[in-house]
Structure formats: structure tokens, C-alpha cells
């Protein structure tokens, strides 16, 4: 059974010119039209900002501990 699945998974598929002309992303277009894409970008920005603040705080604490260890 496993051999037959491998063989089926390696079938060649013909590439047409239509495959290169498909530039639309339906999900992104719908989210943009509803205004939800801005909420998504905002949430991603907040998460990235939180990670950045956490890393900066950890770096400051580590620098302080290194300075104490040297003295």
C-alpha cells in the first residue's frame, strides 16, 4: 500500500499558461474589501512589538547581570 501511494504521489502534471496568469488571492482581496486586513496587520504589529520589547528587556537584564558578575 505504501509503495502505491508513493507512485501516485509522483505523477507528473502538465503546466499550462493559466498557472502563470493566476495572480489573484481571493482571501486577501475579501479581507481587504471588508477592512479586516488592517486588523490582521495591526495584530501582527502588536505581537512583533511585544516580542521586540521582551527581547530588549531581557538584553538589558542580561547586561546588568554580566556587569555584576565582572565586578
TrEMBL record:
Question: Which ranges does the record mark as transmembrane?
Answer: 37-57
Alphabetized UniProt keyword annotations: Membrane, Transmembrane, Transmembrane helix
Give the Pfam families listed for this entry. Answer: CcmD_alt
Where does the source fall among the domains of life? Bacteria
What name appears for this protein in its UniProt entry? Answer: CcmD family protein
Q: Which organism is it from?
A: Echinicola strongylocentroti
Amino acid at each position: 500500500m505504501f509503495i502505491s501511494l508513493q507512485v501516485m504521489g509522483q505523477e507528473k502534471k502538465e503546466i499550462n499558461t493559466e498557472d502563470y496568469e493566476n495572480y489573484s488571492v481571493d482571501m486577501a482581496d475579501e479581507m481587504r474589501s471588508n477592512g479586516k486586513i488592517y486588523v490582521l496587520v495591526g495584530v501582527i504589529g502588536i505581537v512583533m512589538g511585544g516580542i521586540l520589547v521582551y527581547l530588549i528587556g531581557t538584553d538589558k537584564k542580561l547586561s546588568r547581570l554580566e556587569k555584576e558578575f565582572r565586578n
